[in-house]
Structures are given as structure tokens and as C-alpha cells.
Amino acid sequence: MSRLMGWPFAATLLAVLAFAAQAQAQARPDTRTMSCEQGRALVQSTGAIVLTTGPHTYDRFVVDGRFCPSGQIAEPAWVQTGDAARCRIGNICVLAPDPEDFWRFRR
After folding, report:
1. CB 93 within 8 A of CB 62
2. Which of 7, 48, 54, 98 has the CB geometry, 3.0–4.6 Å to 62, for a possible disulfide?
3. pTM for the full predicted model
4. pLDDT digit string (tens) for the chain, length 107 residues
5. Helix segments in 25-61, DSSP class H
């Protein structure tokens, strides 16, 4: 009897895992399917957003440095959109340069 009790549990667990995997696999907005202006407006309206940029690539785009973690700064970012090979839709966060590096390598 305990073997039969295991099947409903296993089936329920499998269904829950399949649903969770499907929810996780939901697509992010894809820059390649929107116009340059749409991509720019999306970043502006959200402040920070993760966008798909290629078949296996994505990035987090921000309006400005206020949306970057401490120790990072915003730098301009260009992506491919549906109507442009290079469109500046916003910025990405990168590590801030260390001021000590400037003097270290100038010697």
C-alpha cells in the first residue's frame, strides 16, 4: 500500500517542478524584437531591467548610476534592436576604476 501512496506524491511533485521550471523559463523582454526607442523607453520607465540581448545573452540595463551597486558606476551600453544594429538604450553597471591604479601604472 505504501508503494501506491508514493505515486500520487511523486506525480504531484513532478507537476510542481514542471510548473516551476516553466515559470522560471519565461522570457525576458528581448531587445532584438523591439525598436530602439521602445528599448530606451523601457529602461527609462523601469530604472533598471534585465533584457535579453542575444540567443544566450542578457544584461542588466540602468538609467543612471543611482541604480548601480556601491563600488560600481554606469557606463553607456549599446545593443542590437529590431531596427538598429547599435542602439544606446541606457547604461550598464561596471566596477568603478580605482584611483590608485592611475598612479600605479603611470610610473
Report:
1. yes
2. 48
3. 0.69
4. 445 456 666 667 666 666 655 555 567 999 999 999 999 999 999 999 999 999 999 999 999 999 999 999 999 999 999 999 999 999 999 999 887 765 555 54
5. 36-46
